[in-house]
Amino acid sequence: MVKSISAPLARTARLLDLVPFLNTHQGISLKELAQRFDVSPAQMSSDLTTLWMCGLPGYTPLELMDLEFESGYVTIRNAPTLAKPRSISFDEGVALILGLDLLASSLTNEKQNLASLIEDLKTKISKKIGLPVSLNAQPKSSPQVTSALNESISKNTYLAIKYHSLYRDEVSERTIQPMEILQENENQYVRAFCFSAGAMRDFRVDRIIEATQTSVRPGGNEATVTSQSIDFTISLKRPSRDVVERFDVKYSDISKNLRLQSFSQQWIERSVMASGDGVELASPLNIRADIASKAQLILDRYKAV
Q: Residue 57, preceding bond cis, omega within 30 degrees?
């Protein structure tokens, strides 16, 4: 039979917890003790045998701990130095505080009564480890906004948002259809079709002030986006940095027919036209024809001048 061996770190932590527990639970049965620590009776017997060899320097019978468990019930004596529960380290305390802070930020309205309990526990841990400053691990973005974005992506619905643009230093109201959430360095972005701009846009999540689910699709002649992606093929004729970044391709892909996808026909048209002679759209033919028509209109205006 293969002997079940506990992981060394887990076993060390269990041994340190056993001593204070046994001091307050003298005479506990070996079976119950094993259940309390979620190990087998054989593993617990092995742990107790190890504790026999623990004690103060000198390591004579006077300094070693005295245990008795052959009768099936466990008692411990001569263990004053390990009678107290082990303390958490500074790093462990910091991790606990940050974890509690994240937990508090995710509480829903019906669970706000837990917020004060979490705050009290954070204060106690801070005092215990001697933390001189207050830590905050709450995400920059609102949990309500993040929740609304995730729900909209999963259900393929629209969102009415209030967005703060730092470039213009203004708050605008938009209707978007989120596609995916992206992580870039320390910031989160949501890639969405913006009905105000009539094109795909990336919005920084922490700059979205409000996000409300809406079933009303914007009307008028605004561009549309579907849940089905559009396959299109381009050929790189003269790749530049703008072209490579716009289509997320490589310089080495020059002269290759690249099969890509988008959720917006208007984004495809604008991206190809913005690339000038650096990109040629091979398919689909209907979008290619639209681009040719719009390009001809532009040329005609130049001729008129």
A: no
266 contacts 199 by C-beta, under 8 angstroms: yes
Quick: pLDDT tens for 247-286. 877 777 776 788 888 877 777 888 888 888 888 888 889 8
β-pairing, 208-214 vs 66-68, is unpaired
Cβ-contact 136, 94 below 8 angstroms? no
Maximal C-alpha separation, the chain: 107
3-state secondary structure of 192: strand
| 104-137 per-position pLDDT tens digit | 766 666 677 787 888 888 888 888 777 765 666 5
Please give the order of strands across the beta sheet that includes 170-184: 199-204, 187-194, 170-184, 158-165, 208-214
User: What are the tokens at 254?
Assistant: 């020059």
Q: Measured between alpha carbons, how far is residue 34 from residues 7, 14, 44, 67 in Å?
A: 16, 11, 6, 16
The answer to whether the beta carbons of residues 97 and 131 sit under 8 Å apart is: yes
What pLDDT is recorded for position 225?
A: 46
What would the mean pLDDT of 86-102 be, rounded to a whole number?
Answer: 76
CA distance 126 to 114: 18
- Type of residue found at 18: L
Q: How far is CA 261 from the centre of its chain?
A: 26
Q: Are 235 and 206 in contact (CB under 8 A)?
A: no
Count the residues in the chain: 305
Pairing state of beta strands 73-77 and 28-29? antiparallel
Mean pLDDT, the chain, whole residue set: 77
| Residues 45-65 pLDDT 10s | 888 888 777 766 665 655 677
Task: Specify the DSSP class assigned to residue 210.
Answer: E
